[in-house]
Specification:
Shape: globular
Helix content: 25-40%
Largest sheet: 8 strands, antiparallel
Oligomer: single chain
Strand content: 15-25%
Mean pLDDT: 75
Structural class: alpha+beta
Number of strands: 14
Order of helices and strands: HEEEEHHEHEEHHEEEEEHEHE
Low-confidence stretches: 229-254, 257-286, 289-332, 338-349
Number of helices: 8
Distance between the termini: 37 Å
Length: 359
């Protein structure tokens, strides 16, 4: 297994981006409900057309505290099926400090949740994820498995959108390694020709051009004679334009894409960009994107869907509450003693949320 967090990120980045585009295509803006029981489920939409997936809790982000907490440190006492993948990640990455530390501060490293979920993908081979809200200040990062998320045969048409998505949303440190991993994992035939790497698939081939070890251009060649019929097109919009504009360290600019005139890139390549809201209004996030939000910025809080992506009927979140206090009156000394006893419990239950929640 890879010896550094960057190695795992490079291995997973491009396949993850394709899986996220697939997830967006499958579920759109559907409402969802998570059930972290012995047989965990994430259900999109309503019966009879609901789509049911199997979630695995990898970690949680507290936007208030600005921390990531690993799912393998099971402070909520979830069933083994819920946290098994997180424990597997810990067991397979013993040499990576970020994986072995139960709680990590996110100040100065806003991409860390993305890096950790990509590491989990590289180890488990489960490529889709969702970051769901379990409360006003808690985001739950889950891997998702379902038949509907199978990627199928590799496609040259998807190479451009996938790479643009990945480089816009994940800190890929080695473009060449990431592309080789992608070709291997997806089953492309590969030919290297100087500064170009060519990925062959049944629908044509993609020519990826490097400059200074960075991907700078992607072209498609389709047809039996392999004639290039491309025109320059703008790079695909990242999942979060705001995040891309911040130009966080380690996130490369999207390469230039070209596409055949006769075969435009599929619509699924387009990832909608949520509209920002002014003042103290809450901001919409789909949870499907990989672009992270700085958890230390307390102005970035839980969001309300806009009219263009109305998710359907909202499910009231079921939250576990602290035990009710006794109705008997307490003396000041008794109250102080009771408060002192409760304080450790508050710390122990940091990040606590219910087994059932949804949107």
């Amino acid at each position: 297994m890879a010896s550094t967090l960057d190695d795992l990120v490079n291995r997973a980045a491009f396949v993850s981006a394709e899986a996220q585009l697939k997830l967006e295509e499958v579920v759109g803006s559907s409402s969802w409900t998570v059930d972290f029981s012995d047989q965990p489920t994430l259900t999109w939409g309503e019966q009879p057309s609901a789509i049911i997936m199997t979630p695995s809790l990898i970690g949680t982000v507290s936007t208030k505290a600005g921390t990531w907490h690993w799912g393998w440190d099971n402070i909520n006492d979830f069933p083994e099926a819920v946290v098994a993948d997180a424990k597997r990640v810990k067991a397979k990455a013993r040499e990576i400090a970020e994986v072995q530390t139960a709680e990590l501060a996110l100040e100065g490293v806003p991409h860390l949740p993305v890096q950790l979920i990509l590491a989990a993908k590289a180890i488990t081979g489960t490529w889709a994820h969702y970051a769901a809200s379990a409360g006003p200040a808690t985001d739950v990062w889950m891997l998702l498995d379902a038949q509907e998320l199978k990627l199928g045969e590799p496609s040259a048409l998807k190479v451009g959108p996938v790479i643009a998505q990945a480089l816009s949303t994940a800190p890929v440190t080695d473009h060449g390694a990431a592309l080789r991993y992608y070709a291997e994992l997806r089953g492309f035939r590969v030919k290297e020709d100087g500064a170009q790497v060519i990925l062959f698939a049944s629908d044509g081939h993609a020519i990826v051009t490097f400059e200074n070890e960075q991907i700078v251009d992607i072209n498609l060649e389709l047809g039996a004679k392999g004639v290039r019929e491309g025109v320059p097109v703008p790079a695909m919009e990242p999942a979060s334009v705001e995040a891309a504009e911040r130009a966080e360290p380690g996130v490369a600019a999207s390469p230039t894409l070209t596409e055949p005139v006769s075969s435009p890139l599929p619509d699924e390549a387009a990832v909608p960009t949520p509209e920002g809201e002014s003042g103290e209004a809450e901001e919409e996030r789909s949870g499907l994107e990989e672009a992270p939000v700085d958890p230390t910025d307390l102005t970035q809080r839980e969001e309300t869907p806009d009219a263009s992506s109305a998710p359907g009927p909202t499910h009231e979140q079921s939250r576990s509450e602290a035990p009710c206090e006794s109705s008997l009156e307490q003396s000041p000394d008794e109250e102080a003693e009771a408060s002192a006893k409760r304080e450790p419990e508050k710390k122990e239950k940091k990040g606590f949320f219910a087994k059932l929640f949804g949107r």
